[in-house]
TrEMBL record:
Keyword terms of this UniProt record: Carbohydrate metabolism, Glycosidase, Hydrolase, Polysaccharide degradation, Signal
Keyword Metal-binding: no
Family note: Belongs to the glycosyl hydrolase 74 family.
Single GO molecular function: hydrolase activity, acting on glycosyl bonds
GO BP terms: polysaccharide catabolic process; xyloglucan metabolic process
Signal peptide: 1-28
Protein name: 1,4-beta-glucanase
Annotated InterPro entries: BNR_rpt, TAT_signal, WD40/YVTN_repeat-like_dom_sf, Xyloglucanase_GH74
Organism: Streptomyces griseoruber
């Protein structure tokens, strides 16, 4: 198998040709990077933690993986997680999903990551990172196969393993390309000949790798489900393979999700489910194999059935106490997921949920608008500290919970931020410098950047993924939001986003296709666009009574993002990306007419942004054609020559002595896609991030702080909100 081997320093962006168009006079990028300090605006987790692994030989050393937000190392002294993959840049966005991780029990400094978010044809191939210093630096091998850290089965595993007989030998299970082996610590890979599993296009391939002594076991997710079909293989010498004999009745139609080996009793525990998860599971079981005798025993804590359907997910053994282990249910919505613990090898079990006491004061959003948090969902990552039997952690779709006494639980999540952020607003006045909207957890009011918002998710109504968030420019206390919810998909606030009131009414299409929303400068008019999750676009609607009644605006381009003029409440704008034109309204959104035409079209990566405090000052970001500006309300546009690709752009407080707001963008001015600031109206740019702080895909939204020069807020797809400030 061909691989490319290189030391990881930074991602680079491929060059693209510029179309010869009229241009605004501009200068070259300023040389050098000014010192910026980058940190997360704290929310606390907010994403799916798919794997947790304690090092078996080092007290306090642990690692976590996520489906889209990279990998982390636990710093026991500081009691927080350290991100390990922020160096991955724009071109490497697909590598922010961690399919699997592995440690070397003999060499504690060694760490391995198998990266690749999607296995689809449009996604890049996976990569293997290896480190000799616990993830401080990496050497990278590019693979010729695809991995799927954000696809079905992402909570299974681990699919990466250091061979118990030879620390230089690694095994990697793939979804569609069988089993791979490396004899040089991941520098090169080859398909394992003789491995009996046959991949299918729609299957899971290898779901887990686990060592039981010197024997390697491989879970297989592509069995045909017929009686006697095989979903577990093993090798004792690394060369010859066999189906594990006597596989339990009823498991042939199930997927082996995870496995753990009790070296004291020499028993291998395996969890099963009828689907790879994390969704779609309705049946499952737990079995153990006595590896010395080959005897299988079912040890399922509670059988799914009736209205209580679920699968089994995580399993972790206690290294200090023989026969003690923890397993998790998964996708159990009726009775709610739990952890079961046994101290007698599975003969009897205790549900840890029944006596659990939760403290989520550090991350209040985990109450989800209710009085108390739930035990969790999507529980497939479970670990027991090998040095502390009562220290158990488990991952959910939003956090990582931990206990030190098997009763009191709290998020063990400091430093781990996995939010996929899609909306940001930095108000010009008020307590909060930032409002955010994210996938899955909706809108938050950040009264502090260093602590999770005390109000948690925006309520009244509670909504999941945010689709719109906007502030009335001349009335910053007025904010509107839209998103997917169970009790209405839109709301407004008259106190800057602290509290919310639901729209009294909403267009019928809002139930199935809530899209971006805007408020005009004084907050008297709302304009709501509608886009279904499958991309279908619908006519926008307008309200003049804070969402009580709505009327269709047929002249607004379907699905476009409405942009309010920040100075004139009668003006709205929209970019029709299908036709490459700008439309404008001069009657407070009642009707729109076409203005500039002949602009780039056909690519979804377009953003029209209005400069603050000015009427008709518009900027258009385009993925392949760079940046354009209009100073006449969209009647004409001129191309800005200082960058050849612009993905998102925002404004902040002007530099001292400057007469125009600071401009921030994610774009490409020369060879790389990076974060830039301009203090002179886009005549020149300076890069403000660095090779260690890139965070994969960052093209959703960027805004500067209108009250603090130099501070910028950046949305990432899996690493939360990054905010940067000049080092003073």
């Amino acid at each position: 198998m061909h691989v490319t081997r290189r030391t990881v320093l930074a991602g680079t962006a491929a060059a693209a040709a510029l179309t010869a168009l009229p241009a605004v006079q501009a200068h070259a990028v300023t040389e050098g990077t000014p010192p910026y300090r980058w940190r997360n605006a704290v929310m606390g987790g907010t994403g799916f933690v798919t794997g947790v692994l304690f090092h078996p030989a080092v007290r306090g050393l642990a690692y976590a993986r996520t489906d889209i937000g990279g990998a982390y190392r636990w710093d026991d002294r500081a009691a927080r997680w350290t991100p390990l993959t922020d160096h991955l840049g724009w071109d490497d966005w697909n590598l922010l999903g961690v399919e699997a991780l592995a440690v070397d029990p003999v060499h504690p400094e060694r760490l391995y990551l198998a990266l690749g978010t999607y296995a689809q044809s449009w996604a890049g191939n996976g990569a293997l990172l290896r480190s000799d210093d616990r993830g401080a630096t990496w050497t990278r091998t590019d693979l010729t196969v695809k991995l799927g850290a954000n696809e079905d089965g992402r909570g299974a595993g681990e699919r990466l393993l250091v061979d118990p007989r030879d620390s230089d030998t690694l095994w990697l299970g793939t979804r569609h390309d069988g089993l791979l082996r490396s004899g040089d610590r991941g520098a090169s890979w080859a398909a394992v000949t003789g491995f009996p599993g046959t991949p299918t296009a729609a299957g899971q391939g290898v779901t887990l790798l686990v060592a039981a002594g010197r024997t390697l076991y491989v879970g297989w997710g592509d069995s045909d489900g017929t009686a006697g079909s095989v979903n577990l293989y093993r090798t004792t010498d690394g060369s010859t393979w066999e189906a594990v004999p006597g596989q339990p009745a009823g498991t042939s139609a199930k997927v082996p999700i995870r496995a753990a080996y009790d070296c004291h009793t020499r028993e291998l525990y395996v969890t099963y489910a009828d689907a790879p998860g994390p969704n779609g599971q309705s049946d499952g079981s737990v079995h153990k194999l006595a590896t010395t005798t080959g005897t299988w025993t079912e040890v399922t804590p509670v059988r799914p059935g009736g209205g209580d359907t679920f699968g089994y997910g995580g399993v972790a053994v206690d290294a200090r106490r023989p026969g003690t282990l923890v397993v998790s249910t998964n996708n159990r919505w009726a009775a709610v997921d739990t952890l079961y613990r046994t101290t007698d090898g599975g003969r009897s079990w205790t549900s840890l949920k029944d006596a659990a006491v939760f403290d989520v004061s550090e991350t209040p959003f985990l109450k989800w608008g209710e009085d108390r948090p739930k035990f969790g969902w999507w529980i497939q990552a479970v670990a027991v500290d090998p040095y502390d039997s009562k220290h158990v952690v488990y991952g959910t779709g939003a956090t990582l919970y931990g206990t030190r006494d098997l009763r009191h639980w709290a998020p063990q999540i400091r430093g781990l931020e996995e939010t996929s952020v899609v909306q940001l607003v930095s108000p010009p006045a008020g307590e909060a410098h930032l409002l955010s909207g994210s996938r899955d957890i909706g809108v938050m009011y950040h009264e502090r950047l260093t602590a999770s918002p005390s109000r948690g998710m925006a309520t009244n109504p509670v909504s999941g993924s945010a689709t719109g968030l906007a502030q009335a420019a001349a009335r910053p206390s007025y904010v509107v939001r839209s998103g997917w919810g169970d009790h209405g998909n839109g709301a407004y606030s008259t106190d800057g986003g602290r509290t919310w009131a639901p729209f009294e009414g909403q267009p019928a299409i809002a139930k199935d296709a809530p899209g971006p929303i805007a408020a005009n400068a004084d907050g008297s008019v709302l304009l709501w666009s509608f886009v279904h999750w499958d991309g279908t676009k619908y006519p926008a609607h307008r309200s003049t009574d804070h969402g009580t009644t709505w009327s269709e605006v047929s002249s607004f381009p379907n699905g476009a993002t409405p942009v309010a003029d920040p100075a004139d409440p009668t003006l709205f704008y929209a970019y029709d990306s299908d036709k490459g034109n700008v439309r404008a309204s001069t009657d407070s959104g009642r009707s729109f007419t076409v203005r500039a035409t002949g602009l780039p079209a056909g690519d979804s990566q377009f953003k029209l942004v209005a400069a603050p405090g000015r009427s008709g000052d518009l900027w258009l970001c385009t993925k392949w054609n760079g940046l354009y500006r209009s100073t006449d309300g969209g009647a004409t546009f001129a191309k800005v020559a200082s960058c050849w690709a612009s993905y998102t752009l925002g404004f902040g407080k002007a530099a001292p002595g400057a007469d125009y707001p600071a401009i921030y963008q994610v774009g490409s001015t020369e060879a790389i896609t990076a974060v830039y600031r301009s203090d002179d109206g886009a005549k020149s740019w300076v890069r403000i991030n660095d090779d260690r702080h890139q965070w994969g895909w960052t093209g959703e939204i960027i805004v500067g702080d209108p009250r603090v020069y130099g501070r910028v807020y950046l949305a990432t797809n899996g690493r939360g909100i990054q905010y940067g400030e000049p080092v003073r």
